[in-house]
Every structure is written in C-alpha cells, then in structure tokens.
Amino acid sequence: MSSLKAGLRLSLSALALWVLCGSALASAEVQPRYRVGVHAFTGDDGLPQGGVNAVLQTRDGYLWIGTFGGLARFDGLSSRIFRAEPSLDASGPRHGPQAGPASDRILALHEDERQQLWIGTQDAGLSVYRQGTFRHLPICGGTCQINAIVQTPDRTLWILSNVGLFTLDPLRRQPTWVDAQRTGHTHLVRDRQGRIYVGGGEGLFVLDDGRLRRLALPAGDGWVQVLKTNGDDLLVGTNRALYRYRPGSGQWQPLGVASPTAAVEDADGRWWVATASGRMLREDDSGWRDLPELFGMGVISLARDDEGNLWLGTGSKGLLRVRKPVFGSIPASLGGVDMAGRAVVADGQGGLWFGSACGGLRHWRQDGSLLRQPVLRAAGDECVASLALDGDGALWVGTAEGLLVRIADGRPTLVGQWPGGGAVNVWRRSEGRLFVSSGRSVLAVEIDGERRISAQRRIEALRDMSINAIVPAASGGDWFVGDRGVWRLLGERVVERWTPREGLSSRFARAVYEDRATATLWVGTYGGGLNRIRNGQVQRYDSRNGLFDDTVSCILPDGQGRLWLGGNRGITVLPTPGDAGAKIESVGYAAGDGLVPAEINGGHSTACHRDSRGRLWFSLVEGFAVVDPKDFPVVAPVPLRARIEQVAVAGRSQQIAGDSLALEPFARSLEIHYTAINLSRPRETYFRFRLLGFDHGWVDAGQNRSILYPLIPWGEHRFEVQARTLGGRWSPVPARLSVLNPQPWYLRPWALILATALGLLVLVAATHIGTSQDRMPAKPPD
Residue 159 CA to chain centroid, in angstroms? Predict the structure, then answer.
C-alpha cells in the first residue's frame, strides 16, 4: 500500500473537532464491531428480476431463486434461467414436458424426498421439475396462486393456495382438498410432532382431526406475517410483534421485535428477522442486534445454505448473500476523524495503541475506553508511521514527517528528527538501544538516561536499503527485511542474505516469520507471494500454486499451527503450512467476511500485531481489524463437486441419458459446459478436465467452465472434470460423461478388411478370366 493511498491529510476543521472530541473519546467505551459480509446479486449477475420471492437450496447444492421474472438455478457465480413458454390457451396447463414452469411469477419452492422441485406460481398453479424437464399440474384450473408447500413424513405434500389448503400425493399428483373456505392463508409449517399450522390474513390455525382450528393471537394482533418452527415451539410474527408460541401451554412470549416480515435461523441457531421498518435484526445473548449495513434493503424472503451463508431476497434490490463476520473492526471514523490504519502495538497493560496516517494516535485501554493521544501538540504532526514499546511502558512513535517521539504518562517528547528522509520506522533493540530507519538509511541509536539520543551511527552494510521489518534471528543477530531482500546481520556484518539471486521470488520483501521448531523461514513479498526457506532451499508460493494473495505484508502465527498473512486482497490463512509441498493450502478472507475494506495497509514495521490474549490485529486502509484464533473454526477449503451442466454438438443442445452421450456419425464441435457449486467463494473456483483416449493428461482449465472439441475420435471415450477452490484439493470424485462416437459400419476394420478382400477377389477373378480368354484357341475363319 503506497503512502499516497494511505496518507490522508487532516484538515484544520477536522483537527479542531478531534481536539474537542478527545475528552468524549476518553470516556466512551469502544468494542470491536463485527460487520456482516454482504454481496448483492442483481440483473448484472444474471438474475432474471430484482424482486426475489423465494430461495431454496436443493440437495444437489444448487440455489433456486424464484422471482417475478422467472426461475433461476444458481451455482454461486452464474445463473441458468427457466422461463414459462408463451401460450394463447389460458384455460389450463399444457401437457407433456416443458422447458420452464407454468408462469414466470414464482412465489414458493419446495424439494421433496425424491428430489423433485415443486414450484408454486402466482397465477398459474403448480409445476414440478425433475431431471431437466417441467410438468404443470391441472390443479385449480392451472390459474390459482400457490403460497407455500411442505411435505410430511408419509410423503404427502401440503399445499397452501389462494383457494384453500389441499394435499397431494407426489406420485399420483391428485389433490385432496382439506379446506377450501379460507383463502387468506400465506404461511404453512409442520412442527416436530407432525402438526400442521397455517397462518395469514385470517390469523393462526392448527390442523386438528382433519380440520383447521383457530388459535387465538395475543390481544391486538390481527394477522400472521411470519411462521417458523423453533424447536418444539413456533416463531410467530404478527402485524404488531414477534412471539415465541408454545403449543403445549398455549403461551405467547413476546421477543421485543416490532412488525416482523421475514425470519430465518442461522447455522448457530440464532434468528435473523427483517421488519416492516426496513431493519434487519440478529439474535444474540443480550437480545437483538441491529445490522445497519442491511437497513433499507426491503427484505421479503430469507434462506440458509449448507455452507453457512444466509440469502436475503429483496423486493427490488436483488439477492443478498450474507456471511457471518469473521473479523471485528475498530471503525475508521472516530470523533469525526478518518483513520487509515498504519501501526498497532500492545501497551503492556492489556490495552493497545493504534497509529494512523494521518488520523493521529489513540490508546485503547483495557477498560474499553478509547483515548486520543497527541503526538506533538506544538508541531501538530499526527501522521503515525510506526510504534514500539520500551521496557518502561513508554511508547516510541515514528512519524511520516521524519520525527521520533517518546510518549510517557501521556506526555510526548521529541527525541530526534530526520527531515527529508521520509517516514521513520522504529524498533526497540534492547534497553536504551533502538533501530531507526529513515528513507534508505538504517541507524543504530543509543538513548541515555534522559531519554535523549546520545549516539547514532549508520549501518553501512544496509546503505541504500529501505527497511520494512527487523526481526531477531534464531541463529543470532537480526533479519533486516526490505527492498533488497532479506539480510541477516551479526553486529553490523552481513552473514546471510536471501535475494532473487538466491531464489527469492521478489526483492521487495515485506515480512519475515521464523518457525524455530522446524527451522523454517517464511518471507512475504510485495507482489511476489510467499517464500519458504528450509535447508537452504527456497520454495515459492503465489496465486498459481495455491496462495490467495500475491502480496504478503505481514505474517502472524496463531499458536495453533496456522499462519495468518495480511495483503492487498485481504487476509490469508494457511491451515497447515508445515504440510506445504509444491503447492500450498490457503483460505482467503475479504469484504464478505467482515473486512471492509479488505486491504492491509502494509509496508511499515508494525502493521500487524498479536496481543497478549492471542488476538491478531491488522491495520487496514480504513481502521483496524481483529480476529481471535481461539474462536476461529478449523480452517479447510470447502471440497467442491464438479457437475456437467450442458452438452452441445455443432451448437445444438443435446439430451444426456444418465451420464452418457451418443453422437451421430461424423459429429463435429462437441462443447461441454461444466460447473461446481461454490456459494461462498465462487470466483475462487478452478477446473481441470481430460478426455480419456484423447488428452494425454489433465488439462488445467483455470476458471473456464466449458471446453470445445472440434473433432472426436471414433469409439467410446470418457470425459472427466474436477474442481477445487483456491488452495483446496481437487474433487475426489470427478464428474463423468461417456461419449460414444460410433464409427460408420463401412469404416470399421472388419468392413475395410472385407472390402479389401472382396476387391482382391474381384481382381483375381478378373485376372483369371482374362488369362482364360487368352488361352482359348482362336476361332478358325469361315
């Protein structure tokens, strides 16, 4: 991250506001904020329409999306749209298989135990999708509105429409009407005991002895807008409030949410509730937490997938994917001042110091209060570049303007200055000794008892080297990390160096971590990825062999065997760095995981920090991020399952029977489209394929999702495709397609042999006849 990008300059008015707010900040309790990661999918991403009424993940992993513009099947990156076929006959459904549902106006989705997808429409009744085709049912004349569908253990489908409640056998597909009187029902659930509940504009009902029996709502509540199972209870949202209803006792427990409109339970068993006022609330231990990043989205439907994502269907803003936040943050704006994160270190008392460019210095104390700390009142320089804590608990501050300041008991003292050299990086070497870098010079600085510089000398071995980090080395001395690689010095003598000449991937080194247990040195670079140095050998890792980000500005161990890397794209976790070989396993985290923005503001000495509690802190281009590895789940890239979606020959789509495809003789231009379901990180999906008997081995397809074979050899072949997420392993079971390209009978070997034999016979016969004719005596003349 360049200093131009991070170096926000503080205006005089902002500075005045900052000073006025200092006392307020000192008394305010601040805690890291956990922002959910939100990604919106709209028409630009292939969604058929901006209003999403229903979302369902089927057992094959696909996400089905019902809108007022058609039905979409989504793999995480792209959608296949199914639309109704135009028809002039509005009296009923069409017979036979169709290419889309009965109507484009989709309201309800349900997958039954036979993996059939049932689609309820607003104006054309019910359709069912199975093995690539749709069929429309002649229920209610094919014109009713289907609001909800559930299935009971006996495989019976219960279907709620605007003309009543009915059941359906999924095999015979003949309806049995249960209640055709009440037409205002919109919600339908089955509880753990198998009881059926119905809710809507006429209130709440339970199916009792084959009939709907009304349940009294709390006083003042008129209709039901949310109806979900909640363990043995029900979660019921009325026009006024949200309740937990206990069927056994008939008790209503108010939950403190007004006018709920939709709800879903996340993977942690916490409820998320949308309200009529545009708020989105998440349940936590203390009640409900407002999610301001989701305010005003107009959420009308909610669903959860098997990867832990939540999907929010909105009335006009498309489909939102929401992930549980992994990282917390100290906001970028405090007291009216923007903070571009630059440095973070512990204060030695359970708190932290945060330095920003150019938002000044703040002390986050153990009691949770945040205090603004002036660096130099007189100079007014508040652009912090680096921080270091000494043995007395005093803070050393290097600034972007070349100043070195010591702060003790809240009082700043100017210790040294190197004007014209650029930002000052400072490292505590030992009591009374510092390393200071300014520009392309590294100085060994001696500090006397009065906390003044008593001596300083340039380290000549590092002349013209810009230093980003200094780390004590296991073999003695220190590692100096900078724009000429990584050098180890004993005293002021270079005893070891790693540069591109020795195999380093880039001379622009940013960070070093030495794993003393395995005698491994990890080196992070700017743009060149990560280097592992072991036994004198360098192994490079970048985005081509498993690394999430080619920029590594800092490296932090978490005490559980994992390494955390900060870079331009976000934060990378190496789950098992010790197992890395020619490739490395990594998982990347960015805006969708609570890093907003995702970029780490690296390039200075203390951009990242592990505190006394084991939490990891990262300086962002706006604010600071934190994660507690103890609360972090075991990290492993999600295994993906590849799927073959579509096959075309000469541009014409082909019907696949099971996993086999029979081509016509002399078929040309076989095009195979494939995918893999990756709803969390679809843009990190990679593929490889092979056609056995044609390709010599696996062909790396990168992120391409199709392959065109202009010619296919005669015979039977097998096409295979595998998928993986970035840093993950290839699918253990590839998607397979048997391709039969039948050779015409007259080109088969036996036919050619027979034809050749017949030709020879004809030739021999012709020769024999000719010879016989030559031997016949001439006919005497008359």
Answer: 35
Residue from 151, 140, 146 nearest 113 by CA: 151
Longest CA–CA span in the chain (Å) reads 150
How many helices (H) does the chain have, and how many strands (E)?
3, 68
Model pLDDT, residue 725: 86
Structure tokens at 175: 């309806």
Q: Helix %, strand %, coil % for the chain, to 5?
A: 10, 45, 45
Beta carbons of 687 and 705 less than 8 angstroms apart: yes
Rounded to whole angstroms, the Cα distance separating 310 from 741 reads: 45
- In DSSP notation, 576-606 reads -GGG-SSS---EEE-GGGT-SS--B--SSTT
The rounded distance, in Å, linking the Cα atoms of 246 and 437 is 68
Q: How far apart are CA 686 and CA 684, in angstroms?
A: 7
Query: Residue 537 forms beta bridges with which residues?
Result: 534
Tell me the pLDDT band of 592, cut-offs 50, 70 and 90: confident
What does the DSSP 8-state code read for residue 132? T
Q: How many CA atoms lie within 13 A of 341 on its CB side?
A: 31
| Residue 493 to residues 86, 437, 459, 536, Cα–Cα distance (Å) | 82, 17, 9, 20
Which residue's entry shows tokens 């009082």? 411
Instruction: Give the Cα-Cα-Cα angle 739, 744, 749 (nearest 5 degrees).
Output: 100
Residue 509, SS3? strand
CB atoms within 10 A of CB 413: 14
Helices (H), 64-199: none
Confidence at 679, pLDDT banded by 50, 70, 90:
very high
Contacts of 675 (CB under 8 A, 6+ apart): 75, 77, 78, 642, 643, 645, 705, 723
- Return the SS3 of 758: helix
The strand ranges marked E within 418-508 are 424-430, 433-438, 441-447, 453-458, 467-472, 478-482, 485-490, 493-498
Flag whether pLDDT at 334 surpasses 60: no
pLDDT band at 713 (very low <50, low <70, confident <90, very high): confident
